[in-house]
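To: structure desk
From: M.T.
Subject: fold request, one chain
Message: Could you run this one when you get a chance? Sequence is below, nothing fancy, just the single chain.
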Amino acid sequence: MPVPRRLVPGQSHFVTRRTRNRRALLLPSPEVLAVVLYCAGRAQSLCPGLSLHALTLETTHLHAGVTDAEGHSLLPVFFQCFHGLVARALNAHYGLGENFWRTGSYDNTETHTREDFVEQLLYAWTQPVKDGLVDRPEDWPGVLFLPEDFGTTRRIPKPPGAFFGGRRPEGHEPTDPRARREHRARERQRRERKRAEDAARDRARGRNRRRRRQLARERESRRKHSERAARPPRDRSALPEEVVLRIGRPPGFEGWPIEEVRRYFRRLLDARVQRLLRERKASGKSAMGLERALAGDPRRSLGEPLPRFARNPRIACKNRELRKLLLRRLQAWRNAYRDALERWRNLDRTVRFPYGSYLLPTLHGAKLAAPRPPPALA
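Reply: Done. Structure tokens follow.
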């Protein structure tokens, strides 16, 4: 069975997810930016109490820092809505089908101290610099929340022409310029093949040239008339025309004035960027540059992903002794979950799952053990 995920209400997480086949489907553009921000706001509207602190989109993956709601975990609801809407909208934008995200690429890492949460924030903020795309996080044109965004609220309108689900209308054109040109070229080729097939059928039936031309004109007239007579597609979407996106202050800084929080993290971010630039210079590398980074086709693959045999951490903690303690607690929780699941499979409906279990209590009404709040952020 897959390793169960512990989802304790009020816990802080950093989440990553990658696109299929390392395609650059999150390459910054006005359309991608509008879709991602709207989807984040829509997902947040369904999860009252969940705080979004960080969101960084690179070309092939994203990083998000969140603190779960109190009382009942809403982390799965948030990311199911956010990732699902982004996948449907950007698949339609690029004229693609099948899965948008790489299967099994969703990772959530718990943070239990303020220092570890700060470290994860700096990691997410400096990814474009670390990967050699730009020299400053501010230069990255994609989605990237920075310290100045803490405590702010944005009103995000629904992107015009974006498609968020259901069955795509017949003849739906991608909104990405490259994909739209290719789509129109394919449609022209399809119509030309149809004309050639009709002409070949008329010749096989012994119709003379004049009659064949007359039939071709009639078919073309009917095609244009049907295109003009076609009713515009009905907008069946129940999504709101505008959403509110709130970037919450980081946990552990509730008693600080918001301006002081922003200045504190700005100092940390500037110091980290300077360190990365010094390391890049010492290694002899240079930034790729925005022009080169944005020039490629976003539907291309940046190379097949190699199998990873490294550990996939569930807890981010720099303190070695504390990390050992947290990992022992996590392993004890997993053992308790497996024992409870075995009893549940044996039709014992009195069993109580350890606090932090999600799927069975949410979908099947299984009982939960007494709550144990997560360790307070130091």
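Reply (cont.): The longest strand covers residues 12-18. Let me know if you need anything else for the meeting.
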